[in-house]
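Example 9 (inverse folding). The structure is encoded as follows.
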């Protein structure tokens, strides 16, 4: 557990606390964690069981495959750490995570993140403790821990002082409603492929225009949903 006064505070409720910090312990997120820009606490859900077998799940009501995490056990874990921070449940049926939501979370005091396993958690827990369900994509993972790491990585890099060049974050995919333009670096020619001449021209106006054009082209080709949303926003 790493704690810090002030800054973004993340508390992760999980059956596998050993999965953290994982990738969050290296690179930008790891340095920020070490420097105290954010804090990470893991809570073992099994510590809030009351039976000798430390059971956290039971069979689904109505029958069916798999097991469901118990509301009473989870509620005790949640109530132990609840302090007004947003409560997030990593779920494939949740609202898709967006860069806009990431920015909102990064501007807040932190988050309490519940990582489900098995078939998920008792619906009553989600309702009673006012959890926001978040999805990182239309696919299924073994548990919510990997999703929580993704969400935290997206948040932490936006915290003050974490990225060395603030401008690098402002031009990335989704920040402007478009996918990001292509990037190039030395050598000038590689395997017969050259860096576009405009990027070597020194004409910053032309470079900006090219980058905008490429961002629009890629968005139209790869994410027509984003392109339509972008066009609609321009009409407002």
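The amino acid assigned to each position is listed next.
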């Amino acid at each position: 557990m790493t704690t810090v006064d002030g800054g973004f505070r993340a508390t992760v409720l999980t059956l596998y606390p050993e999965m953290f910090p994982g990738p969050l312990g290296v690179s930008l997120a790891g340095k920020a964690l070490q420097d105290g820009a954010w804090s990470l606490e893991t809570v073992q859900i099994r510590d809030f069981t009351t039976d000798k077998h430390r059971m956290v799940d039971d069979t689904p009501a109505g029958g069916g495959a798999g097991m469901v995490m118990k509301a009473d056990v989870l509620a005790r874990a949640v109530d132990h750490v609840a302090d007004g921070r947003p409560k997030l449940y990593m779920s494939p049926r949740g609202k898709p995570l967006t860069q806009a939501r990431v920015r909102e979370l990064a501007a807040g005091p932190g988050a309490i993140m519940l990582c489900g396993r098995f078939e998920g958690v008792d619906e009553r827990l989600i309702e009673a403790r006012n959890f926001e369900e978040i999805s990182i994509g239309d696919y299924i993972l073994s548990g919510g821990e990997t999703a929580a790491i993704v969400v935290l990585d997206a948040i932490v890099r936006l915290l003050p002082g974490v990225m060395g060049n603030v401008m690098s974050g402002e031009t990335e995919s989704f920040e402007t409603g478009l996918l990001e333009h292509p990037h190039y670096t030395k050598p000038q020619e590689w395997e017969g492929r050259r860096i576009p001449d405009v990027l070597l021209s020194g004409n910053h106006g032309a470079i900006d225009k090219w980058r905008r054009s490429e961002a629009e082209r890629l968005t139209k080709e790869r994410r027509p949903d984003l392109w339509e949303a972008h066009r609609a926003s321009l009409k407002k």
